[in-house]
Specification:
The strands form four sheets. A seven-stranded parallel sheet has the order 3-4-2-1-5-6-7, with helices on both faces. It folds into three domains: 4-158 and 318-331, 3-Layer(aba) Sandwich (Rossmann fold), CATH 3.40.50.720; 162-314, no CATH class; 344-435, Type Iii Antifreeze Protein Isoform Hplc 12 (Alpha-Beta Complex), CATH 3.90.1210. The protein has helices at 4-13, 27-37, 52-61, 75-83, 93-98, 112-124, 134-151, 162-175, 201-207, 211-218, 221-234, 253-256, 291-299, 321-331, 375-380, 417-440; strands at 18-23, 42-48, 69-71, 87-90, 104-107, 128-131, 155-157, 179-187, 237-238, 246-247, 271-276, 282-287, 307-312, 344-350, 368-374, 393-395, 410-412. Helix 6 packs parallel to helix 7. Helices cover 39% and strands 19% of the residues. The protein is α/β, with parallel strands linked by helices and 441 residues long. Strand 6, helix 7 and strand 7 form a beta-alpha-beta unit. The protein contains 16 helices and 17 strands. It comes from Planomicrobium soli. Pfam families: DRL_cat, NAD_binding_3. This is Putative homoserine dehydrogenase-like protein. GO terms for molecular function: NADP binding; oxidoreductase activity.
């Protein structure tokens, strides 16, 4: 299998490129456009955003001349622009997913409902879909993957995001026959479950980031979502609800992930976890029962065992997304996908005391945060998946701070794509389970 760089070079020598369609020209999307403009064999030929200036500015900053950018919502005009070597800026996301000239779609919106619709439309149009939207993935990813498989296209998370970077370590270790004990990531900031856009505003301004996005990191939601994606890809589960959030440096990780009876701090193996002190890295804890393998690991200065740590000290977010685009296009491979189905769930927890009749405001907002449970625990409690929460979800009763919000606690005042897909997912996999049980009987 040729390296992706050489495959891209060969493609460009034949006068071709992978034609990428992007939805969302925020920070992630802008970075990806500029990165791809540096690459051989790939181009973002059309980008949609509700603010057209976001798209044109992203293209100009990437080095595209203004005369090479066509603003349109017309399919024929967009197709002609791409065919003539120009790029298209649009406000119509469906134009991106339906345009025949596009090979691979990337969702960089960060909004669960919008991401679910983009993925659905991409798959219906038989296009590979790369999700920078982990929140949508952990909510309806198992269904979207099943649909993509049936349509002969790839549904994938992205390289460069922490779940994708963790998956690369897992695949490496698992392929070599190591026992994978734990998978995890560093957290960039202390857990503050009360964080909201107001409390995060000053730091967000310094960093040039969205206060809402920063709040979703600080309150732990993003970490819970990311490790839910890893759980659904590998079958690993949190050792306890919400995970532990240990404090450690990289050298201390092997000892932490010993079982308690062996002097460690965890109850189970095959777990997902986050660590304060190793950000922005990701890690896999691995082990082997083979004497010669342990001898070699010790010779290679990997530690004394029985646990060893594989650590990657960086992840380049959307700047690595082109790797996932190319893997889907050339090899029909996903970087990370919910291969194990719904194993874990990021559920909705009240950030403050809430009253009957209040509307919830979603990820990184003022009303709720997310925590990870096993899918079985979440189902038993009828816990509301966080990806279903938006401003159209209203409380039917008062909820205390720290309480898990359930399906029974809310009414959905406006139906949405992600709610419909989640209902479909629940029905589909319930039917799959029933069929398996019937066959076994």
């Amino acid at each position: 299998m040729l390296g992706i760089n050489r495959k891209l070079e060969e493609l460009e020598k034949r006068g071709q490129v992978i034609k990428v369609g992007l939805v969302g020209a925020g920070q992630m999307g802008r970075g990806m456009i500029s990165q791809i403009e540096n690459m051989a064999g790939m181009r973002v030929v059309i980008t949609a955003d509700i603010q057209i200036d976001n798209v044109t500015n992203a293209y100009v900053k990437s080095g595209v001349e203004t005369g090479g950018i066509v603003e349109t919502t017309d399919a024929q005009e967009a197709a002609q622009a791409v065919q003539s070597g120009k790029v298209v800026a649009t406000t119509d996301a469906q134009l991106v997913t339906s345009l025949p000239e596009v090979d691979v779609i990337v969702d960089a919106t960060g909004v669960p409902n919008i991401g679910a619709k983009i993925a659905w439309d991409a798959i219906l149009n038989k296009k590979h879909i790369v999700m920078l939207n982990v929140e949508a993935d952990v909510t309806v990813g198992p269904l979207l993957k099943k649909m993509a498989d049936a349509s002969g296209v790839v549904y994938t998370g992205t390289a460069g995001d922490e779940p994708g970077a963790i998956m690369e370590l897992y695949d490496f270790a698992d392929a070599l026959g190591f026992e994978v004990v734990a998978l995890g990531k560093g957290k960039n900031n202390p857990l503050n479950q009360s964080a909201n856009p107001d409390s995060a505003a000053e730091e967000a301004a310094r960093k040039g980031a969205s206060p809402k996005m920063l709040a979703s990191f600080q309150d732990g939601t993003k970490t819970m979502v990311e490790m839910t994606a890893v759980a659904n890809a590998t079958g690993f589960l949190p050792d306890q609800p919400g995970m532990h959030g240990f404090v450690s440096d990289v050298k201390g990780l092997p000892e932490i992930f010993k079982l308690k009876e062996d002097g460690g701090q965890v109850t189970n193996k095959k777990i997902v976890e986050y660590i304060n002190g190793v950000a922005p890295g990701v890690f896999a804890i691995i082990a082997s029962e083979k004497e010669e393998v342990n001898h070699e690991m010790q010779y290679l200065s990997m530690g004394d065992g029985p646990n060893y740590v594989l650590y990657r000290p960086y992840h380049l977010t959307s700047l690595e997304t082109p790797i996932s685009i190319a893997r889907a296009y050339f090899y029909n491979e996903a970087t990370i996908a919910p291969w194990k189905g719904l194993q874990a769930e990021t559920v909705t927890v009240a950030k403050v005391d809430l009253s009957e009749g209040d509307f919830l405001d979603g990820i990184g907002g003022f009303t709720v945060y997310g925590t990870i449970l096993s899918a079985g625990d979440a189902a038993q409690q009828k816990a509301l998946p966080l990806g279903l929460v938006d401003r159209n979800v209203q409380l039917k009763r008062s909820i205390k701070k720290g309480e898990i919000i359930t399906y029974d606690d809310v009414v959905q005042t406006v139906d949405s794509t992600i709610w419909r897909l989640r209902r479909m997912q629940d029905d589909t996999f319930k039917a799959d389970t029933s069929n398996v049980a019937a066959v076994q009987a």
